[in-house]
Amino acid sequence: MLSPLPPFPILLIYKKKKKRIKIKKRIMSAALATPLARQIAGKSILVTGGASGLGAATSALFASHGAHVTILDLDAAVGEAFARSLNDAAAARPGATGLPAVQFVKTDVRDPEQVAVAIAAAEELQRANQEAFLEGAHSTSTDAAAVAAHPPYYEHVFGCINCAGLGPAAKVLGRKGPMELSFFQNIIEVNLIGTFNVTRLAAASMAQNAAQNPSVKSADAYEVGADTTPYFDNGVIVNTSSIAAFDGQIGQAAYSASKGGITSLTLPLARELAAHRIRVNTICPGVARTPLLEKFGAKVVEALSANVPYPRRLLEPREYAEMALFLVQHRYMNGETIRMDGALRMAPK
């Protein structure tokens, strides 16, 4: 059982000139019922590859917990429609500001400029929702300064879930000769370099959240063991690798190399970014039930499921999303690589 976080109740009570001022419940209505949920509610979350498959399930789950989600993907028609559907659901929740809580930004994760634009859009969405929230809070409070001194939102990105990637297979020595170098380069660029590109720029945004943290004003103030405000991380990054990083099959040389690189990034990133109170973890899914896989038909899905020891089925995207949510919520999870594969160990082919 997780240890509860320090109380951060919906009904906040402040002292001023020996008078107790009660801020009405709706001031913090964006915060959900449990302390762990408050680690998510009102925070800015990036999800790459967030309009389909594992990423879409992640976008939906984080949005349902009150996060402000920015979806980075390539298919604008699909992404914009998906964002609208999530906004329709978010608008009906308590604490909604009346502004969109989810947005889509067409982004190639390999492109530094496009990623920077997406992060700027995420920060703008966050600021707009924060201002609308505080305006609503001030209208019910006799102490606007007290509310402003305890901002319910950070102004910058808080979470980054990297799901964007591709995984075509090809042998190093095939019937037509050696693998084209461009094939290998493309997979490395999208999966590994794309993940790193988003991670580095998201981390730069997260580090700026220290200004909103009342106990840690800068990275210089951080000391190992000095965890005086357990519910204040400056950010959390969750990357997506694969069991192919460990059990690569014939034809997966490029894909396994890209995912192995993501896995190997986890610990050095977590160690370095600890100085900024940013945690980093990696999920290694097994075979997941995605729309792309289901196009191969029920027989293929059944055959793949039969290889999984238990549970004898494919990983559901919602389960991946729940693991990502857990890693963002649980503050002692840092520098970890987690396999989600039902004890599956892939055969050579």
Automatic annotation (TrEMBL):
* Superkingdom of this protein's organism: Eukaryota
Indicate yes or no for the key word Oxidoreductase. Answer: yes
Q: Which InterPro entries match?
A: NAD(P)-bd_dom_sf, Sc_DH/Rdtase_CS, SDR_fam
Keyword entries, A-Z: Oxidoreductase
Q: Which GO terms describe its molecular function?
A: oxidoreductase activity
- Sequence similarity: Belongs to the short-chain dehydrogenases/reductases (SDR) family.
Specify the protein name.
3-hydroxyacyl-CoA dehydrogenase
Q: Which organism is it from?
A: Strigomonas culicis
